[in-house]
Design brief:
2 copies of one chain form a homodimer.
Chain A (H helix, E strand, L loop, with lengths): L9 H6 L9 E5 L12 E2 L9 E2 L3 E4 L13 E8 L15 E5 L11 E4 L3 E5 L2 E4 L9 E2 L10 E3 L7 H9 L4 E5 L3 E7 L3 E2 L10 E2 L2 H11 L3 E8 L3 H13 L4 E5 L4 H12 L4 E6 L3 E2 L5 E5 L2 E6 L3 H19 L5 H4 L3 E6 L3 E2 L5 E9 L6 E4 L8 H4 L3 E5 L5 E2 L4 E6 L2
Parallel strand pairs in A: 5-6, 13-16, 13-17, 14-15, 17-21, 19-24, 22-25
Antiparallel strand pairs in A: 1-12, 2-11, 3-10, 4-6, 4-7, 5-9, 8-9, 18-20, 20-21, 22-28, 23-27, 24-25, 24-26, 26-28
């Protein structure tokens, strides 16, 4: 007889992720830090911008001198100089009624507090302009420290470094930072029936799909996959493969397969054979994905995934993705989990209560919610998975959804 | 005086992307092809699975022999053998009333057409079982070719290769494919006031933000960024830098800066100096992002981006991102453009009609639509951009939005 599982809920299993600590912080150059998590808060060493700048091409003025200016009653200004881009305008200091030519990004000269756009001026002669619109103090400028103030925390530990965060660091002169190391993940497929994708299978054999799918998912989650090959259904071989992977050293071992009782037992026994390991979960009440195994050995994670490609994908997205993100030091739910949207299911879908179900859907339209069309097909098939945009969540206690009902959809990467 | 722009609409500029052809197809191993676009249709060389398989641990039977079986009236079967995983069950051929032990993934033996789950059986003695539930033909099996039929087109040219598509290819034994080459993108920043991020700026200078931000965006869009450095405001230097970048050879040159009239003219003149170039657009009616330049020289793209980091980001997301995706052979709008969702704006926001406005927002909640909270701040600032999750679109002819109104939001990568 199959053993009965003591199933954990999705939430319980996701909460176990907190048992794992982020990996060590390492130095990184901002040019190579895209999508890593900051290991420490970043304080600004200086004001940005370091001086008050113009945001327009035009003329630096004292705003008060423009008050009341209009098309019919323009204000007259004497042009006393030009701010040269990239140089401090130390030679210029405006007196009342004076203006200085300035370009976008130029430093405001002494005495000025605003910029008049060139479009609102008219040259009268070589050194005189008319200004046809009033400006208020600070108009068309960015003040010293307006973007970032010296000593303020600009980016917090755990922040995902997107292009704009990297640009902010560049602007502050911070080109070297610390991020959490990427986890190395050994990917193992088990099954006597499996051959490598590049081998012609003899009769009775089938090509291994999971190594390819799971390695690519690891890469998407920010990990470094190492294909540790195919292991046959043998306790001893699987145990050796896990121990070798940890010696590599891998930070996580992902074993897929083991749909049959024997194989599943071997995965558990292989994990138990790892020194200092403890079993955190064996079975989760999601469909597909029930025969999931999670264990920990020190800071290392040992995960058993179902053998079917569709089931392995669901379990990866729900549990392994956030665990890999956690190891990389991410903190916010939006960085830990795949994004979810609300959609409308397009047809009736009955579900068996008791387990949260993850239904493959393709998404269409957007007005205002996208339509989610169920993709039918057994979880042992890979082609229906290749047609899916997301996984629609049917709650644990629901008997199904009616066409037109709203549901959450986790977007596949 | 500034020249007046003949502005193109967003749609007109996006349509110009079709003037560019995808780059050459190159060979790739599936292990390295994640997120590339297939250069050719893929036909399946074989059936998947290659034989009819069990999806359960249990017993292969003739379904008809189970008809009428129940808990109270179980059907008796003689167990004649076991299907060994990974081997063809040639030695087994079921007669009426016979069953064979089988595991998940095992090949159905001759004479059988269904599988009874082990949970619905009871061993009577070493070679006899009781079956307590009827199965229909094909139940608990995956038929030969049920996933993919030989000679069918499984993946079309232009398909983005996600983990599941790569798994499908692995399952079919297709480990070598052709994808479109990644574009090499030279990133140039212009401005006399700019210094490299790792240099302490002298007074009047400011650190270059755009090289960092734009290089990271290029990487996200699947391109290979090459930092071609900072060029001062000189027609001659900018022209040389563009020509050198094209000789590298780069497939695209991205020049940012040129907010001042002189600089903008230099960018246009540098693009004109490229042999065989033609100017496709100069100015686009979006806010921010008006001073955008697009030119083509043969198969190469020349793009002038605004100097402000926030404006450059908008223009990149709207035009450069899809252009880079097009060069990589993507076809579907969902692969060419950044994703958009519908959200509700949380506060009133007035907009000036005439240009489509892209407002930075942070997104919160999801019930059923997320809240989009405007992030205020001049486009010359970088910090507000680092707080944004998306860009909310205010239509061209709108005078603004009221709190609670629905709007489209383009999600930042």
């Amino acid at each position: 007889m199959k053993p009965f599982f003591k199933l954990k809920s999705r939430k319980e299993l996701q909460d176990l992720i907190k048992e794992f600590s982020p990996l060590e912080a390492v130095s990184a150059d901002i040019a190579e830090a895209l999508n890593h998590a900051l290991a420490r808060d970043i304080k600004s060493p200086e004001d940005l911008p370091p001086f008050t700048r113009s945001t327009m091409d035009g003329f630096a003025v004292r705003a008060a001198d423009t008050f009341g200016a209009s098309e019919t009653q323009p204000a007259l200004f004497e042009v006393t100089g030009e701010v040269r881009m990239g140089y401090p305008p130390d030679s210029i200091s405006l007196e009342p009624g004076q203006a200085a030519r300035i370009w976008t990004g130029g430093e405001l000269p002494g005495g000025s507090d605003a910029v008049v756009m060139v479009e609102h001026t008219q040259a009268i002669d070589a050194s005189t302009i008319e200004v046809s619109r009033a400006v208020s103090p600070r108009e068309n400028t960015i003040q010293k420290g307006e973007d970032v103030q010296k000593d303020s925390v600009v980016l917090a530990r755990g922040t995902r470094l997107r292009p704009q965060e990297l640009g902010l660091l560049a602007g502050l002169g911070i080109t070297g930072i610390t991020v959490h190391r990427q986890p190395v993940v050994a990917v193992i497929s088990t099954g006597d029936e499996l051959v490598r994708p590049d081998s012609p299978p003899r009769r009775g054999k089938i090509r291994d799909i999971n190594s390819t799918t799971i390695s690519a998912l690891v890469r998407i989650a920010g990990g470094i996959p190492v294909n540790a090959g195919i292991v046959n259904d043998s306790r001893q071989h699987l145990t050796s493969a896990c121990l070798e992977a940890l010696d590599m050293p891998a930070d996580m071992v992902l074993v897929s397969g083991g749909s049959s009782v024997g194989q599943r037992d071997y995965t558990i026994e292989a994990f138990k054979a790892v020194e200092g390991s403890s079993l955190l979960a064996h079975g989760v009440s999601v469909r597909p994905g029930k025969p999931t195994i999670l264990a920990r050995a020190g800071r290392k994670a040992l995960v058993g995934l179902p053998g079917h490609a569709a089931s392995a994908l669901v379990v990866f997205c729900l549990f392994v993705y956030p665990l890999l993100k956690r190891l990389q030091g991410f903190i916010l739910p939006k960085d830990l989990y795949l994004p979810e949207i609300t959609a409308r299911i397009t047809s009736n879908y009955p579900s068996q209560p008791g387990r949260e179900e993850y239904l493959r859907v393709s998404l269409k339209g957007n007005s205002p919610l996208p339509d989610a069309e169920p993709i039918f097909g057994k979880s042992g098939l890979i082609y229906p998975v290749a047609r899916a945009d997301g996984l629609l969540v049917i709650p644990r206690d629901s008997e199904g959804l009616h066409a037109g009902e709203r549901a959450r959809v986790m977007l596949l990467p």
